[in-house]
């Protein structure tokens, strides 16, 4: 097993959660914190993505195709595209984190 050195100012809040009975041990605290963070971030991304889907009546892939096929540039749509794409990538990232951490629960 590999060990990691964690500075005391980072470890103390985690240890405190265990001391107050919120988690069984520090390992459990870290795993649960990462798990909950991944769920929170996924939900944040989902909400933003849903707003764009409602605004344009399309899923991202179709919006992207339509935007790139349009000869006339629409700066608002391009701004939305950049943000929407970022939320889509962020959702994928946090979804992977969630899948990786879930077996450790």
Model description:
It contains four helices and no strands. The longest helix is centred in the middle third of the chain and has 31 residues, at 26-56. The chain is 76% helix and 0% strand. It has helices spanning 8-19, 26-56, 60-69, 75-101. The chain starts with 7 loop residues before the first helix and ends with a helix. The protein is an all-alpha fold. α2 (26-56) runs antiparallel to α4 (75-101) and α3 (60-69) runs antiparallel to α4. The protein has one domain (8-104).
Features:
4 helices; elongated; 105 residues; mainly alpha; 76% helix
Give the SSE layout.
Blueprint: H1 8-19, H2 26-56, H3 60-69, H4 75-101
Helix pairs in contact: 2-4, 3-4
Morphology:
elongated
List segments where confidence is low: pLDDT < 50 over at least 5 consecutive residues. none
Strand coverage percent: under 5%
H/E topology pattern: HHHH
Helix content: over 70%
Largest sheet: none
The average pLDDT is 96
The computed structural class is mainly alpha
The total of helices stands at 4
Number of domains: 1
What is the β-strand count? 0
Rg from C-alpha positions?
20 Å
């Amino acid at each position: 097993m590999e060990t990691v050195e964690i500075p005391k100012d980072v470890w103390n809040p985690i240890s405190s959660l265990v001391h107050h009975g919120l988690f069984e041990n520090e390992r459990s605290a870290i795993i649960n914190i990462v798990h909950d963070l991944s769920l929170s971030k996924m939900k944040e991304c989902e909400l933003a993505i849903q707003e764009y889907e409602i605004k344009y009546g399309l899923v991202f892939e179709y919006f992207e195709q339509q935007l790139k096929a349009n000869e006339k540039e629409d700066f608002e749509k391009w701004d939305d595209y950049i943000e929407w794409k970022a939320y889509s990538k962020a959702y994928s990232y946090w979804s992977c984190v969630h899948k990786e951490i879930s077996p450790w629960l």
